[in-house]
Amino acid sequence: MHKRYLAKLSAVASRVASRAASRVPGRQRLAAWLDTFVADFVQQLPADEALRFLFDLDERLYRLQGRQSIRYGGGIHTKHRHLRYHDFFTERVSRTETVLDIGCGHGAVSHAIATRTGASVTGIDLSSDNIELARSRHAAAGVEYLCGDALTDLPRGHYDVVVMSNVLEHIEHRVVFLQTMMEAATPRRLLFRVPLFERDWRVPLKRELGVQWRLDRTHFTEYTNESFLQEMEDARLTVVHLEVRWGEIWCELHPQ
């Protein structure tokens, strides 16, 4: 941030701090202080700089909220139950099928598919910490967890279904990856969940202002409906079901 804005920020902080009432409980006093402090501060900035400051603050708070949601959920982000997104995958897998869950994380989706459907599931994730958690928290009959880079270490052999839940956006060369993955796994269908760029009016505004607009800094893309459909066509995949939920695309695809 520009030095003159830092000077204004310091002056506003001193002024607001002197007004804080000591009789208000700490948490309430902090919330009231922040509310007044931020409102006073951004009002002194040009509109574009005010928005950049607020969006930067918004991203920091979003990351903190995610961490605390995991802590509140006992190690599992509460979005798993709020979104009920396991249902999308389990409802599209049958008992006799084999499933490859790419980017399985701590194994919640793999575990749900195996225990609810009876399918045989292999989960792979780049993070050894994630795989350790998956094996300790989400072990189940019919589930195997592998630590490896899906770009280079995909297990060979046929899988009926490939699952990628909020994974594809983390891959830079997605079309090449999808074509390589289909050659290795020869799936009959694929189940994807990806973030939607058009989830909120603030997303294009953030990008216009040159601040972080992605849900995660490691995302190489966040899709529009059109860009997603074009990318799937380029990868020679046919969309047979697509729905938008919670600002995301959830879809089933078949190889062409």
Q: What does the model show?
A:
It contains ten helices and seven strands. By secondary structure, it is α/β, with parallel strands linked by helices. The chain has two domains: 1-45, no CATH class; 79-255, Vaccinia Virus protein VP39 (Rossmann fold, 3-Layer(aba) Sandwich). A seven-stranded mixed β-sheet has the order 3-2-1-4-5-7-6, sandwiched between helices. Helix 1 crosses helix 2 (26-43). It is globular, with a radius of gyration of 22 Å.
Which key terms come to mind for this protein?
globular, 2 domains, 10 helices, 47% helix, 256 residues, 7-stranded mixed sheet, single chain, alpha/beta, Rossmann fold
What's the short story on this structure?
The chain is of the alpha/beta class and about 260 residues long. It has helices at about 5-20, 25-45, 45-70, 80, 85-90, 110-115, 130-135, 175-185, 200-210, 225-235, and strands spanning about 100, 120-125, 145, 160-165, 190-195, 235-245, 250-255. The chain has a seven-stranded mixed sheet, with helices on both faces.
